[in-house]
Design brief:
By secondary structure, the chain is of the alpha/beta class. The protein contains 13 helices and eight strands. It has a four-stranded parallel sheet, sandwiched between helices. It is found in: Cytoplasm. Pathway: Porphyrin-containing compound metabolism; protoheme biosynthesis; protoheme from protoporphyrin-IX: step 1/1.
């Protein structure tokens, strides 16, 4: 095997702390061909579709990839921004916000890069960006507050698969979940209060999280419990935790015919008007950035379903995106996980390390090193 090496490595090169912020991914364009590439990568991941490979290969390549890309492309086109994919544009803004905060708060040099589990920029590209920046310690932060094997663990798989190909493997830490982090919970509650301040409170507040197959829960995936915990903590902040008529939890984006986590978001939205709910607000705390599943599935389709079923007023509360309190919360999560690394130490002395690096290079050159 040919490992990715560093033949041009220069002894004494300063080291950097690397932060890789990841999200699910996006097609490169709202076109059929781009969606076909994206869906092929996404749906072939066994963490996403845990089915026998030979049978699933036939279904995926023989049916799904010949029918679904065109429909998905039309949906993406309906929410595509002038700057590009909403998810990618927002993730870049998050990168900028985190870089600004960490550069100001971390004593040593720090570099924030972004990557997508599927599509571009790839995880391999993001890790390589950090490698080229001199990162020998890397924190991986999947922007999924609630752990799920199909999202967080899939990111772990791809990170480790990439690093297996490196000659010099960095020290790595991985954030698995931050679903109960007080700063994150507070930022969700803040976003809801601000929306209420502008639009008034609705009869009902619906927490919609992305769904997963029911069998994943039965096999030990904690995602369902983590989502419920997040919703409970947010409602406690809002002072409505004990008023079950005012809020509920549901799960969206069901794929295929298998049983997924219930109640389903679409069925819940359609059924609320019959229960006397005339106004509805939906918040999606599991999505750190707005994307197809929030902008099209909830903000557009959800509103249409609610009004068609007899509801009178619908509102989608935007994802946290690059809000200041969200970026503060994520920066705090990062700070917790980098403790003990040299760049995070209060006594970090960049000049002393630079001088030691120069002495190390002199010693290396003295014994025959080319660099």
């Amino acid at each position: 095997m040919n490992y990715l090496g560093e033949p041009d490595y220069r002894h004494g090169t300063p080291q950097t702390l690397g932060i890789l912020v990841t999200n699910l991914g996006t097609p490169d364009a709202p076109t059929r061909s781009a969606l076909r590439r994206y869906l092929k990568q996404f749906l072939w991941d066994p963490r996403v579709v845990d089915a026998p490979r030979p049978l699933w290969w036939v279904i995926l390549n023989g049916i799904i990839l010949n029918t679904r890309p065109q429909k998905s492309a039309a949906k993406y086109a309906s929410i595509w921004w002038e700057e590009g994919s909403p998810l990618l544009v927002i993730t870049k803004r998050q990168q900028e916000g985190l870089q600004e905060r960490l550069s100001a708060s971390v004593p040593g040099p720090v570099k924030v890069a972004i990557a997508m589990r599927y599509g571009n920029p790839s995880i391999a590209a993001g890790l390589d960006e950090l490698r080229r920046a001199g990162a020998r310690r890397i924190l991986i932060l999947p922007m999924y507050p609630q752990y799920a094997a199909s999202t967080t663990a899939s990111t772990f798989d791809e990170v480790t698969n990439t690093l297996r190909q490196w000659r010099w493997v960095p020290e790595v830490r991985f954030v698995m979940s931050y679903h109960t982090d007080p700063h994150y919970i507070q930022s969700v509650a803040n976003s809801i209060r601000e929306y209420w301040a502008e639009h008034g409170e609705a009869d009902h507040l619906l927490f919609s999280f992305h769904g997963i197959p029911q069998k994943y829960l039965e096999e030990g995936d904690p995602y369902h419990c983590f989502c419920r915990a997040t919703a409970r903590l947010v409602t406690e902040k809002l002072g409505m935790a004990n008023d079950s008529d005012r809020w509920s939890v549901c799960f969206q984006s069901r794929f295929g015919k298998a049983q997924w986590l219930t109640p389903y978001t679409q069925e819940t939205i359609k059924g609320l008007p019959a229960k006397g709910v005339k106004s509805l607000h939906v918040v999606c705390p599991g999505f750190s950035a707005d994307c197809l599943e929030t902008l099209e599935e909830i903000a557009d389709e959800g509103e249409e379903d609610f009004l068609h079923a007899g509801g009178e007023k619908f509102g989608y509360i935007p994802a946290l995106n690059a809000r200041d309190d969200h970026m503060d919360a994520v920066a705090a999560v990062i700070q917790q996980h980098i403790q003990g690394w040299p760049e995070a130490q209060s006594d970090y002395d960049g000049e002393s390390l630079r001088q030691e690096g120069e002495r190390a290079r002199e010693r290396a050159l003295a014994i025959g090193s080319k660099n």
